[in-house]
Design goal:
Helices cover about 40% and strands about 15% of the residues. It is an alpha/beta fold. The chain has one domain: TIM Barrel (Alpha-Beta Barrel), CATH 3.20.20. Helix 5 (about 145-155) packs across helix 6 (about 155-165) and helix 7 runs parallel beside helix 8 (about 215-235).
Length: about 375
């Protein structure tokens, strides 16, 4: 089987030669792996780990996003980001929130609402064709849609949650603008791909470490109608739908399945009901899962034997499909390299011997695909 055949068989529960895998690591972690194998770019890394997915992108053609004297730079919504250093790496954080003090619609600067017209979709079909049917083709990122988390980067988390609870007109107009932006972008990408995109990827942080971020009533008012419209649109173009959700989101899964969700990404096992075995038992015949190998416990703090045991448990739970194996978020710096390699070795995807055919593969240096932490 090639990667696309493997993923399709997993989605249809028809069995496979090995479980599909989907890698995600911070740039620092990816560099450690590349250095270990003597690799020069992310495409080589994905092939060595046996990643079964590849992403295509629309090309930004809008006004140049500004960089400021303090080193911060502009996002699509007028927000600004700056790298915050920590031991061994760095993360982007929002440092200017343009909508934080907006209390009325008259104060809302809609000039900072981006349009799908800011992107060029003309190369998407060529990007898909270049993949030549070998890999499952995805469009989007965990930062697409992503109303709570990403709007908070321009308005503040507390303000966003109050907007949702109180039906604040300012917050709801920003939410609708974000929905329209990504809905139109994804539809135009699907049209340009002419049926070659297999999976569309969006995100929403509906859960925290222990439970729901919002009530079911708020979800029904503000999220369910938009997600149904988006899922229906993606299905019309023959694509499956994948939604990144951090934390404990089990309470939302029955409704998301009804709305048209096909794949839950990234299955963060923070509570008993989020354990992959519990999810498989309740929803395994109606929903596919992606991730589930914990970047907070097993991968950074377990032994290689612990990692292998967790992989083996998943292989037994999903013998014919339903799970794409991978981490519960980007693997973080400080995670032992041997644990990372054990994850993919136990999955049967790791290419242990690196030959000239791998080293000759060209690709982008750096992060490779859009990161789970994509901000805009």
């Amino acid at each position: 089987m090639n990667s696309r055949e493997r993923v399709r068989a997993a989605l249809d529960r028809k069995g496979y030669d090995r479980i599909p895998v989907k890698h995600e690591g911070t740039p620092e972690v990816n560099r450690v792996i590349m250095d270990h194998f003597g690799l020069s770019n992310m495409e080589q890394l994905l092939r060595v780990l046996g990643d079964d997915f590849r992403y295509v992108e629309a090309v930004y053609k809008g006004p140049e996003l500004r960089t400021f004297p303090d080193g911060s730079f502009e996002g699509y919504w007028g927000e600004r980001y700056k790298y915050q250093e920590y031991e061994g790496g760095r993360y982007l954080e929002a440092v200017y929130l343009p909508f934080a003090e907006v209390d009325t619609l008259d104060q809302l600067d809609r000039a900072h609402f981006p349009s799908a017209d800011l992107f060029d979709y003309s190369t998407i079909k060529d990007q898909c064709t270049a993949i030549d049917g070998q890999y499952t083709i995805c469009f989007g990122t965990a930062g697409d849609m992503d109303f709570i988390n990403s709007i908070a980067r321009a308005r503040g988390m507390e303000r966003v949650l109050l907007d949702l609870a109180g039906d604040d007109p300012v917050g709801l107009e920003i939410l609708e603008a974000r929905f329209q932006f990504y809905y139109q972008m994804h539809e135009r990408a699907l049209q340009a791909a002419d049926g070659l995109i297999d999976i569309v990827h969006i995100g929403e942080d509906l859960g925290n470490q222990r439970g729901r971020m919002i009530s079911p009533a708020i979800f029904e008012r503000h999220f369910a109608p938009r997600l149904r419209k988006y899922f229906d649109m993606a299905h019309r173009y023959g694509a499956r739908t994948m939604m990144h959700m951090c934390g404990c989101v089990e309470a939302f899964l029955p409704r998301l399945i009804e709305l048209g969700l096909d794949i839950q990404d990234v299955v963060q096992p923070t509570t008993p009901e989020m354990d992959i075995a519990a999810l498989q038992a309740k929803y395994g015949d109606r929903l596919n899962f992606c991730g589930s190998m914990c970047v907070q416990t097993t991968l950074p703090f377990g032994t290689p034997a612990d990692v292998e045991q967790e992989v083996r448990r998943r292989l037994e739970l999903f013998p014919k499909g339903g799970l794409f194996l991978g981490p519960t978020h980007a693997i973080q710096i400080g995670t032992p390299l041997e644990n990372i390699l054990t994850l993919y070795r136990a999955a049967g995807s790791l290419r242990e011997r690196i030959d000239a055919s791998i080293l000759a593969v060209e690709g982008e240096d750096g992060s490779g695909r859009p990161s789970l932490s994509k901000l805009f």
